[in-house]
Amino acid sequence: MAYKVPRPADGTFLPCVIADYMTSEGHPPQHRKTGAIPWLAGKLYFLGDIMAARIIRKEVLIPGQTTKLVLDAPHVAAKAKPGNFVILRVHGKGERVPLTIADADPQQGTITLVYLVLGKSTWLLNQLEEGQELNDLCGPLGRPTHIEPGPEPVVCVGGGTGIAAMHHIAKGFARAGHEVVSVIGARAKDLLLFENELRAFSHEILVATNDGSHGIKGFVTDALRDYLDAHKNVAEVVAVGPVPMMEAVANLTRPYGVKTTVSLNSIMIDGIGMCGACRVNVGGKIQFACVDGPEFDGHQVDFVELRERLSAYKPHELKSYQECGCSHG
């Protein structure tokens, strides 16, 4: 039986549960059209393929912590827009890992992903080397960033691995003619990501480190506050990073009356809004990050509830990580 589910208006939708079906039927997911599956034909709305994805470049950005992968994924690259994400699995019985697309090159047929080695699934992902394949890759998923053409200044704020995801969004605003101001932060200089890449199209880049080793000493909110005090014509602030950082940005911008968008990397299972794992309270209404997001009005997100939901599985994640014998070394 196939579930009939709505496709977002922009068309970026791909049910990840199909990969399970294809694997169980003995069909490798690599470059197999979803329309070729009889019980899906005419019953599900979809756009694209579910496929294995080959790693063509792997780069350790921060040893033991953060890695960048460039994947051969032409069908995803052709449709990917800023703000979209993918869900991948390392092997057929592995957990699904949602990652926001850090860059996409339709001409080369590649997408770039950046991840923090934090648990069992990302540890297993980090064991793969160039030339090896992911079991399956679903995407592009989610609603892309809403970008209207215009010259107005847009401030893009990134923290941690969120800087990589913010990179794709900031580039999208720049290509649409906006004056992009990039604000990035980390605990120290050697933990900053994508600074050079952002400089290529940012009108201005502001850097904050906790220890003062690069840029101002403090947080991204300190740099953002100074900028908002000096510039009254900011059209929008977009924040991507740890939940506490995005919450702090939203709290900061509220009295300025500046539109603020946050990208929520919630827990996800199926990526089609059926499991409900990624639900978030936005303006008193339940939304699903996988199909309604991942971007939402930062001034409407219930961050207290979001933090509670994200921490609910931490004991189980830690146990799984310890039992697999995973090590950052």
TrEMBL record:
Oxidoreductase among keywords: yes
Keyword Oxidoreductase among UniProt keywords: yes
One Gene Ontology molecular-function label: oxidoreductase activity
Classification via CDD domains: DHOD_e_trans_like1 (cd06219)
All residue ranges annotated as the FAD-binding FR-type domain in the record: 48-147
Keyword terms of this UniProt record: Oxidoreductase
The protein's Enzyme Commission number: 1.8.1.-
InterPro entries: Dihydroorotate_DH_Fe-S-bd (IPR019480), FAD-bd_FR_type (IPR017927), FNR_nucleotide-bd (IPR039261), OxRdtase_FAD/NAD-bd (IPR001433), PyrK_electron_transfer (IPR050353), Riboflavin_synthase-like_b-brl (IPR017938)
Source domain of life: Bacteria
Pfam family, one: NAD_binding_1
Record's protein name: Sulfide dehydrogenase (Flavoprotein) subunit SudB
